Structure formats: structure tokens, C-alpha cells
């Protein structure tokens, strides 16, 4: 599998257009990996995980189109992850020569929201999959398992375990300290690459809700190692970065390197 990080920021993006903190100012002045769009990832150019507000611009930045994407996995319906108005551009009269349907996976809020955004225009170009936590769905050669996240209280929020050709990828955005049921499900399952977040940065707390801070990120990695999920050959990536960390990209990399964690940046490609 190959993973491309289309966006790696928390909900405000970096720079936040309304902010002149030192992180946002530094990003405007220095650009590069310091500039982050809202979080989204692509697997093998076929599976899109979440659709950020900058999704179309992210594709243009990477010199990509969406024509190969056949699957979208939604983690939840917060606006920095759920830009479903883009689906209209795939409907009849907007997109020509569409050769296969787009499969949309998510919770009840995501499926209803995506369906309503299309307003009856979907025809045979979209297939909706209402999914339940810890059930594995075999789709286009992949095994896709949604696991419960610790995030919004008004809907079931998912992380995703994706398996193919003996490799396992865990996408753990957005979530605070994972629920006990998720740790139990993951126990003993070797994960080759785990993406975990660090949104709350230096905020206090060891087992934070909604998002991880640095301390809870490091503690969660340690627990996943104890559970046999992460081995010496596994890689841990952090994403969903907020300007509230007070760290620019290089400073964040330095901190994460001390814990053998890779800091994702927009456009980063990872082979699993």
C-alpha cells in the first residue's frame, strides 16, 4: 500500500486565516511544510479518507485528478473532514465519462449528509455503505474495519484499520485516548503504520478526550506496543497538527524524532 497525506492540519489549518500567532506568521513567511491544509489521506490513489474543505486544491497541488478514486471513508461529519458538496461535481451533467460508481462508507450522519448533498442527483454513480464498528468489510481487495474513536458526542466517530497484501494501516484521526473496546480489538494485531494525532499539543492531561496531546500520544504509542500492535518494524506518524502547538514544522519534527515518531506534512508519501 501507498499512503499520500493530502492534508495534515487540524480544523483551523496552518496558517489560520484569522490568526497572527507565531506559528501562523512563520508559515506565511517560510511556506513549505509549515503550511498545512485540513487532514485527509489517500491510499493507493483509490481510497480517500475524509474530504477536507481544500480537497480540490489539494488534488491540484499534487497534480492529481479524482478520476481513480473509487472509495471514500468518512471518519465523522465535522466540517474539516466532510466536504460532501464536492460530490455534485461527479454527477451527470458535471463530470463526463465516469466509468464506475464511487463507494461511500460512513456512519449514519455521514451517509445521510452525503445523500442529501447530492439532492437526488446520484443516479448510479454513487453507492452508500452504512457501516458498524469492528465489522470488517471486504472491498476491492482491501479489508476495511472501522474502529470506534473518542471524539464527537453526537455521532459514532470512526478510525480505520485497512489491510491488503499482508500489510496493515491504521488511520487514527480524529480521536482522543482510544476507547477500551478499540484497544481490545487491536490487541495482538500487528500494525505496520499507525497514524495518530497530536492536536492538543502541550495541553495538560494524560488520557485526553476528543483529541490527543503530546503526552497522551506518547502514552498511547507505548500502550499499543504493550498490546503487540506496534513492533520494532512498525512506523508511527503524527498528523492533525494545530497552530496551538506553538511549534513550526522543524521544531515539531525535532520533538517527535525523540520519540521515534514521524511528523507528516502535506504531500508526504509513505510506502507500506
UniProtKB/TrEMBL annotation:
Gene3D superfamilies for this protein: Ribonuclease Z/Hydroxyacylglutathione hydrolase-like
Stored InterPro entries: Metallo-B-lactamas (IPR001279), RibonucZ/Hydroxyglut_hydro (IPR036866)
Domain Metallo-beta-lactamase: 46-215
Top-rank taxon: Bacteria
Lineage start: Bacteria, Pseudomonadati, Pseudomonadota, Gammaproteobacteria, Aeromonadales
This protein's name: Metallo-beta-lactamase domain-containing protein
A Pfam family: Lactamase_B_2
